[in-house]
Amino acid sequence: MSNTTSSETIPASPTSTGDHEREPAADRAYRHVKTGLLDGSYPDGHLLSEGEIAQTLRMSRTPVREAFLRLQSEGFLRLYPKRGALVVPITPAEAHSLMEARLTLESFAIDKLAALGRQRLAAIGRELLEHPACHPGELSDAETHEADRAFHARLVAAADNPVVTDLYSALRDRQLRITATARTHESSRRAAVTEQHNGLATALRDGDAALAKHRLREHLAHTMRAIGISEHLPHLDT
Amino acid sequence: MSNTTSSETIPASPTSTGDHEREPAADRAYRHVKTGLLDGSYPDGHLLSEGEIAQTLRMSRTPVREAFLRLQSEGFLRLYPKRGALVVPITPAEAHSLMEARLTLESFAIDKLAALGRQRLAAIGRELLEHPACHPGELSDAETHEADRAFHARLVAAADNPVVTDLYSALRDRQLRITATARTHESSRRAAVTEQHNGLATALRDGDAALAKHRLREHLAHTMRAIGISEHLPHLDT
DNA sequence: TGTATCTAAGATGCATACAAGTTTGGAGGT
DNA sequence: ACCTCCAAACTTGTATGCATCTTAGATACA
What we know:
Oligomer: homodimer
Structural class of chain A: mainly alpha
Protein name (chains A, B): DNA-binding transcriptional regulator, GntR family
Pfam family, one (chains A, B): GntR
Domain HTH gntR-type (chains A, B): 23-90
Number of strands of chain A: 3
Largest interface: A-B, 58 and 56 residues
Mean pLDDT of chain A: 88
GO molecular function, one term (chains A, B): DNA binding
Strand order of the largest sheet of chain A: 1-3-2
CATH topology of the largest domain in chain A: Four Helix Bundle (Hemerythrin (Met), subunit A)
Region (Disordered) (chains A, B): 1-25
CATH architecture of the largest domain in chain A: Up-down Bundle
Largest sheet of chain A: 3 strands, antiparallel
Distance between the termini of chain A: 58 Å
């Protein structure tokens, strides 16, 4: 048996190039269900079945099953053997936990950048000040959200820790579902959020890690208030 | 169509009761591959195929595929379309990232407990002082490792944030693979590790969060040194 | 009415078959 | 010796069928 095919030539592209030339069925299923989850088509506690989705998308259950597994690992679904896929109910407690986790990881990024040197903080601060999320403009709701996501993702990525970056992006997806569910009129918050982003980026540019973390915490607390959950967040520095 | 079966009776047990009465094939496949990954049977860069594993375990590719998907989501494998499953190579950089992430999450736990009140810190400190990981004893390597894992997991769980607890447990599994790969004679470290656990628990019991975080950082740095990676970890408090 | 039981419907778990992409190695020309 | 091309042997992607488990609801009975 020729099983031990070790140390081959390194495969080229793990992530698809983004081209959607005949997208795999599993990916379509994944996107379809996730979209439904995010826009509220599948409410909390809803029980999905593989066959149901498969029929809708005109494909077999196999790729749908794969999509379900992915969504379970991301915390969106909970699979019950022989029963179905439960849309994980969003409790205020979970939303709170998510926010705490975000605060933790973003604070880590700031701390690490600070440990790497004030100039690193300043560099990312300057970069973020140029970011769309720091400038009011006529953006659609979706664009605004995407800008916000990119802003925070950029900060975390700057810490140059791929493990943390991955964890963080998974959290953001979950939070997206929460904010989408608790439909708050984004537009009214928008000005405040832009201002907060500016404040955070400015603190970074000035090399003030403590202030940056403080403003980050305020920013997240503001979001929590907007979606109506207890805005208390622990202080992460002694 | 009777699709909208919302708000059903809440399903009972998501996690199997632990009984292994005819364990599902997918679980067997998962355990088999993960074991092979952890004990080094599948070295870095090895290319696994579904069929290979399926043949070994005398089952079809379907459950093996499911196991591969799970392992990919946990960061052990990287699936290449039509090519195979690559055993993710462990680079020193990744080991470092993992440790930073662990430090971040465990430090969060300490901070949150401190924010919840000194007595909460003390309570978990007292509990951890009783833990096997704090007492030298005649334990096998596996038992020692399990105790260590449980010790840290308990600390994180005490912060009462399920999201963080989940993230942390995933990280621990990945670290297990690293320490298993870089076979260091655990036994020689054991006394020192036990001492470090004691020191950490004692600091917690005394309500000294800053000292606890310091000792945690030292503890993790010690581990990093033992497996031969750069032991530099950022200070997470300003 | 209330309750135990049985049955049918619907769900997943897994095996199997086939389609399609990728790699590899050699035949054949230069 | 060195390309070029092609075919066979891999791989995964997906569809389909059947076994099994779960559960809701009808039915029979007290």
